[in-house]
Amino acid sequence: MGNGVAFVRWRLPSSSATEHQGQTEKATLSDHRAYWNYEKVLQVRLTIDRTSVLQECELNFEIIQEFTSTHIPEKNVLGKIRLNLAEYVDKVEEDEGVIRRYLMHECKVNSTVKIGIAMRQLEGDRNFTT
């Protein structure tokens, strides 16, 4: 990764609500690593089709490096990650959801991001397949 700082922008493309997008704080890059202890809790509506299959709900991440050279901040997109939240429904490991490392796409180097997702159904039909 290099030097400077990095942050993660995230969004749910299926929603235009402002709470369905955001970004982490900027974290200093050290030894080619950045750490964010970022947690976001939000409600997401997933739909079920006529065959009782849970439909995709995409969550996009964009990892951005920012550094200053000659007093002008520069930004580079280090990579992107696209996850389908429907794949995480009913998947719980020790009450913390699923924590995995994901290889970034559109990345010049093999970099990973560790993401944890915990989902809990609040209301609606429970008769579906994922």
Calculate the mean pLDDT score and round it.
88
Major beta-sheet overview = 5 strands, antiparallel
Structural class designation: mainly beta
Low-confidence stretches: none
Element string (H = helix, E = strand): EEEEEEE
Strand content: 35-45%
Shape: elongated
- Total strands: 7
Helix content: under 10%
Termini distance? 36 Å
Instruction: Give the helix tally.
Output: 0
Gyration radius, to the nearest Å? 17 Å
Outline the secondary-structure elements.
Elements: E1 5-11, E2 21-23, E3 27-28, E4 58-69, E5 72-84, E6 98-103, E7 112-117
Structure commentary:
The protein has 130 residues and is an all-beta fold. Helix content is 0%, strand content 38%. It is built from no helices and seven strands. It has strands spanning 5-11, 21-23, 27-28, 58-69, 72-84, 98-103, 112-117. The strands form two sheets. Strands 1, 2, 3, 4 and 5 form a five-stranded antiparallel β-sheet that branches. Strand 4 (58-69) and strand 5 form a beta hairpin. It is elongated and about 60 Å long. The relative contact order is 0.20. The mean pLDDT is 88.
Please supply descriptive tags for the structure shown above.
130 residues, mainly beta, five-stranded antiparallel beta sheet, two-stranded antiparallel sheet, elongated
Question: What is this entry, summarized?
Answer:
With 130 residues, this protein is an all-beta fold. It has strands at 5-11, 21-23, 27-28, 58-69, 72-84, 98-103, 112-117.
